[in-house]
Amino acid sequence: MNVISRSSTRQRRRMGALAVAVIAIVGLSACSSGMETNEGPAAAGPKSGKLTIAYLQKQGDQQYFVDQADGAKAAAAELGDVDIKVVNLGTDSNKAISELDSVIAQKVDGIVIVVPDQQIGPQVIEAAKAAGIPLMASDDIIADASGAEAPFSGFDGTSMGELVGGEAARLYAEAGWTAADTRIISAYKQDLTACTQRVEGAAASFGEAVSDMPEVVDIGTDNSATDAQNKAGAIITANAGVKNWVVWGCNDESETGVVTALQNSGVAPANIIGVGLGAYLTCKDWAAGQDTGNKASLFISGAEVGKAAINSMVGLLRDGTALPPVSIANTEIVNADNWEEKGVVCT
Length: 347
Prior knowledge:
Strand order of the largest sheet: 1-12-6-5-4-2-3
Helix content: 40-55%
Number of helices: 11
């Protein structure tokens, strides 16, 4: 885990607060952001008539991405005469490339993609550019071979992590735990930039809020609940004498998977502070009225990201409005007492 200075953390938090202050989308101009972007053939002029936009998603069966696809379709319905072609890529980069080639061959008007692996970014961007089809990245930033990033719709990973870590620190202090009898498990896909930003932000925020930072144990996962649960077993066994556990991760799957492993091993919910990221899985225990180690979660709305991406893409295609380099959606902490009123979809 990288050491992040308190001053830099505070600075990022202030910047993050500006980004998440609105649930609408905040478009940052390329000039003000200092970023180069691949905006595609924006100069080609607006299109009339029916539009077809491909939305290619990794792990499209996860609730967050289901919500995202639904948000994209809702935005399309509001705009009118827009067809959304949703494709589930799973975690297969080869499938991502073949499906990208397929929608390009179908001559879709625009492409939004959540890549299974950021390393295919240059290939994805080049293929869309060669076909003259505008492309937008969703959730995970991608860049071309020169390092220029594609327009992006999603969340500020560091700010998200800071909110998770801040809530975990608040609950930790409230519980009266000490570093000597506590471990923090941080579960995430370690080769994914969005994940490292989130968990590093969580650790930095937690460390700034408390004077006795417990040891952080990193677990590499594929971001699924099953993998997190399986990988956590060895860590729990190796730390049999630990009384209390704090858990966070890249997403709800990673966090709830670890919490499940802890509870299955005999750790009482009262000795677990799990703070998820997504809320779509943590809410299941709350909806069932269960005593659980899942104490809170950062609610992120996949629907808002999907809506933002489609609104931006249609704005480009119909009005010639350049894709915003970065679009940031709102987030907030929820728990067993307020998740329903905040609009969390729990399926």
